[in-house]
Amino acid sequence: MAQDLNQMEKQLEATCWELLQEVTDPEIPVISMVEMGMIHQVRVNSGIVIVEVLPTFVGCPALEIMKKNITEKLVEAEGVSEVQVHFVYDPAWTSDRIAVDARDKLRSFGIAPPPLDFKPGDSWEVCCPYCDSPYTQIENLFGPAACRSILYCRHCKNPFEALKPIY
Amino acid sequence: MADMVRVETVEQAKQNQEYVQALADLLFQLADDDFILAYRGSEWLGLAPHIEEDVAFSSMSQDMMGHAVMFYEMLEALGLGKADDIAQLREAKDFRNAILVERKNGAGDYNDNPHYDWAYAIVRSYVYGLHKQVRLEALLQSSYVPLAQVSRKMLTEHRYHLMHWQVWLNQLANSTPDARHKLEAAISLVWEDAGELSDLGPNAEQIVRYGLIAGEELLRQKWLNETKEIFKKAGLNWPGEPGAASERGRAGEHTVDLEQAVATLSEVYRIDPAASW
After folding, report:
1. Residue B275 pLDDT grade (very low, low, confident, very high; cuts 50, 70, 90)
2. B250 CA to chain A: closest CA distance, Å?
3. For an interface test with A, which of B34, B156, B165, B277 has the most A Cβ atoms less than 10 Å from its Cβ?
4. Domains recognised in chain B with CATH numbers
5. Does B49 touch chain A (CB under 8 A)?
6. Which of B133, B157, B166 is the mutation pick for testing A, counting most A CBs within 10 A?
7. Does residue B52 belong to the interface with chain A, where contact is any CB pair within 8 Å?
8. Which of A14, A126, B116, B211 has the smallest CB count inside 10 Å?
9. What 3-state DSSP class applies to A159?
10. Kindly report the CA angle at B49 between B48 and B53, in degrees rounded to 5?
11. How far is A69 from B56, CA to CA, in rounded Å?
12. Considering CB atoms only, which of A93, A141, A144 is closest to B160?
């Protein structure tokens, strides 16, 4: 019996991860919160699902929307009686957590992904998400969201955004 | 003699009332500093020198307010009331922010001829930010593990705030004589209050004894050394030892500016504290 229950919870946990693939970042709708590396853990305990989320930026106003979207999505699943979303800060979210194959999706949305393996002291060089030119300049460190900056491509003359390296 | 403990959870903290008291005293300082300065930043909305700056400054203020929320939530976890109530229902005398962050943005009011001082905004944000950097770094070693964890997160974000203000400082320092003059006047003004930033309040001894944060003198020296370096690189004269206002914000003494800020920021909340947002 106990083993069956355990098996069921494992299954429900897997279902939750699948469903979370459909919950997108409200400000970047092409990429899921799982791909953003923001889902730290999913635990199931007698029908109660606990999702641990790592915020990209603490002051992000989208956090409450994410919480709501996660809850609404998971509560649909069979066997779920309650959904709790906890924001946790250990481990801290870093931009290397973004899934490698999600980086192209960001580009297609006009957002340059953050550099991989960024270290303190490295200079932040950004290639244009449209034409891949490195001939770009930062126009504003803080764009429409704290996690993004506004840049301008001097090659294809397009403005674009870039996700800041967080390390 | 530091009572070096490692407190992993809020339940563990609550086993020692003295520890809780020292922790709460420190959290109020951290929260109120960020909250009130973020509020002053929000008062620049629509008034910053250009639209890009407007976007950037509001974004940073929002982020800083997010940091304040985290500290208020830690106070809530300690059993000191709801985070929103702590932020919005206290009177000015219950705030523990340094006087520097409560000063108005300049002449006039937000809705009535705001002749705000942009140079003051730059210098205040930057000098405060440099101190916050030192403070967050010190908090990484805090005996209260949850506080060390959130500080680590805040540091990753805060460095971008500093980069932003550094650009402005350098630009003004190397611009026209008028810009330079305004910048120097702003430095003098900020310097009248800045010395209070590393004040840990009347309970400083306990705060340090319990290993919650490094001592005042250490914080102060590190912060002054870094600020000195930055002023030097920008070609600015070092203004010497920073002073402190006659009121001591860390002890709950404040100027009328804070009363105005608290009244304005909590006006809507006070109409119906039970409303769901």
Report:
1. confident
2. 25
3. B156
4. 10-271 (1.20.1260.10)
5. no
6. B157
7. yes
8. A14
9. strand
10. 65
11. 27
12. A141
Domains of chain A, start order: 2-93 (3.30.300.130), 99-163 (no CATH)
What pairing do the DSSP bridges indicate for beta strands A48-53 and A39-45? antiparallel
Please report which residue ranges of B111-255 form alpha helices under DSSP H. Answer: 118-139, 145-173, 177-193, 204-209, 216-233
**Number of Cβ within a 10 Å radius of residue A68:** 12
Whether residues B149 and A144 touch (CB distance < 8 A) is answered with no
Q: Which residue has the tokens 């005042």?
A: B216
Q: Where are the beta strands (DSSP E) in B34-151?
A: 106-109, 112-116
Q: Give pTM, 2 decimals.
A: 0.92
Of B59, B66, B156, the CB nearest to A167: B156
Residue B29: what pLDDT? 98
Residue pLDDT, tens place only, B164-200: 999 999 999 999 999 999 999 999 999 999 999 999 9
Q: Are B45 and B15 in contact (CB under 8 A)?
A: no
Name the burial class of residue A141, with classes exposed (0-12), middle (13-18) and buried (19+) by CB atoms within 10 angstroms of its CB. Answer: buried
Task: Compare CB distances from A89 to B65, B149, B163 and report the shortest one's residue.
Answer: B149
Query: Which amino acid is present at A38?
Result: M
Q: Which of A60, A92, A144 sits opposite B156 (nearest CB)?
A: A92
* Whether the Cβ atoms of residue B57 and residue B48 lie closer than 8 Å to each other: yes
Instruction: Let me know: does B48 contact B54? Beta carbons within 8 Å.
Output: yes
DSSP three-state, residue A107: helix
Centre a 10 Å sphere on the Cβ of residue B160 and count the other Cβ atoms it contains. 21
Give the residues across from A49 on adjacent strands. Answer: A44, A83
Amino acid at A165: P
* Chain B positions in Cβ-Cβ contact with residue A150 (cut-off 8 Å): 52, 55
